[in-house]
Specification:
The protein has 403 residues and is an alpha+beta fold. 33% of the residues lie in helices and 25% in strands. A hairpin with a 3-residue loop joins strand 11 and strand 12 (245-246). Helix 1 runs antiparallel to helix 10 (381-399). The model has no long low-confidence stretch (mean pLDDT 95). It binds zinc ion (ZN).
């Protein structure tokens, strides 16, 4: 959605509009620094430099060497609310390059859009936070209370070295509300599903493919498991949440066998179970374990194990929380109409913030999260500038001295 010029547009918003070229170049600069999870050192240093240049107090927090989290603080020295802004520094890999017409790290511009891996998830979000606060500093926005910006690493794989570490070690303490700049297509999202990754391994007996009766086929066993998982997936569609839709299960990876003329003795399957906030991960895992037990009961020689790889909780906050109102008011002031308030299917650092600290969190950023991991990931420049204005408006409404 293009930025709509407003009568009496506040000074901060006008400043952000005037920074359009700088906003574009900031995002392009971030895209040109690949930051696939595990490789956040360069982008962390770059973001820290930008924060220092605007006079913020910057701390680099590393749970492991070379894996920076950037914490930037603006303390007014006066009593007032404590607003937390967050986004993550890492991103998923670009995938096969032949699908990209604009190379993933060139930050090409075409038709009012910026292309590259992370253009949406979440380098545009990082840009909106940085540029909104830069504009607030440059216009000397009088604030009370304090602002903490946290740029976390490790988010795409669950945030153990990123947001989980920060939340567990007091870096978010005292924050009253948080905005996470994950892609929401300029709507306001107030909850996510939980994410549980499980790995199932079936084990058989290898033998010559010409005499399959002498072995035990681990892939055939897994096929039985997959049939049962399909039935569970259908059942999950009946478990629903008003904000988040229904629980899901996806078989996302399978690996088994060596060559066609051998009976395979091992098959590994990776599955992704998305949980409603009220669902318990142990119970969800037990449901899968029960499937293995059922298959074992009817298949002689069936041998399988189950392993948990990722657990990422979901969360949902009430739409009446002040942070939801602040975000919705800001969108309405900048865009001219209220946003849709909804949930997000995918997990983000927002859940760690909320689950580990109780801080109410909303998500807001330009771009559609569902296209964020595609080839030719791209964001509209108008949306990028509009989102920066919305972040600026939230900061000025929550921390402004007239608030
Ligand atoms: Zn993200």
């Amino acid at each position: 959605m293009p930025a709509t010029p407003r009568a009496n547009e506040p000074e901060l918003s006008r400043r952000i509009e005037a920074m359009r070229d700088e906003i574009v170049e900031t995002l392009r600069g971030l895209i040109r620094i690949p930051s696939i999870t595990g490789d956040e050192a360069r982008i962390g240093a770059h973001v820290a430099d930008i924060c220092r240049a605007m006079g913020l107090e910057v701390e680099i927090v590393e749970a492991e060497p070379g894996r920076p989290n950037v914490v930037a603080r603006w303390d007014s020295g006066q009593p007032g609310p404590h607003l937390l802004l967050n986004d993550h520094l890492d991103m998923v890999p670009p995938g096969p390059l032949e699908y990209w017409t604009h190379p993933p790290f060139d930050a090409d511009m075409a038709d009012g859009r910026i292309y590259g891996r992370g253009a949406i998830d979440t380098k545009s979000g990082v840009t909106t936070l940085l540029m909104a606060i830069k504009a607030a500093r440059e216009t000397k926005l009088p604030i009370r209370g304090r602002l903490t910006m946290v740029f976390s690493c490790d988010e795409e794989v669950g945030g153990a070295l990123g947001m989980q570490h920060l939340a567990r070690n007091g870096y978010l303490d005292g924050a009253d509300m948080a905005v996470v700049a994950e892609p929401t297509s300029l709507e306001v999202e107030i909850g996510t599903k939980g994410r549980l990754h499980l790995e199932i391994t079936t084990r058989g007996i290898a033998t010559h493919g010409a005499r399959p009766w002498l072995g035990h086929n681990a892939i055939d066993d897994m096929a039985e498991v997959i049939r049962e998982l399909g039935a569970l997936a259908a059942e999950l569609e009946t478990r629903t949440h008003p904000l988040l839709g229904h629980a899901t299960l996806n078989v996302g990876r399978i690996d088994g066998g060596t060559v066609p003329n051998m009976v395979p003795n091992k098959c590994v399957l990776g599955l992704d179970r998305r949980l409603l906030p009220e669902e318990d991960p142990d119970a969800a895992e037990a449901e899968i374990a029960a499937i293995l037990d059922r298959v074992k009961a009817r298949r002689p020689g069936f041998d399988a194990s189950l392993e948990r790889h990722v657990w990422w909780p979901g969360y949902a906050i009430d739409a009446s929380e002040p942070v939801v109102r602040a975000a919705c008011d800001a969108v309405e002031k900048v865009i001219g109409k209220p946003p849709v308030v909804r949930g997000k299917d995918a997990g983000t650092d927002a859940s760690w913030i909320n689950v580990l600290t109780g801080i109410p969190v909303v998500m807001f950023s330009p771009g559609d999260g569902f296209t964020a991991m595609n080839a030719d990931e791209n964001v509209g420049i108008d949306d990028l500038v509009t989102a920066t204005k919305v972040i600026g408006q939230i900061v000025s409404d929550v921390l402004g001295q007239e608030a």
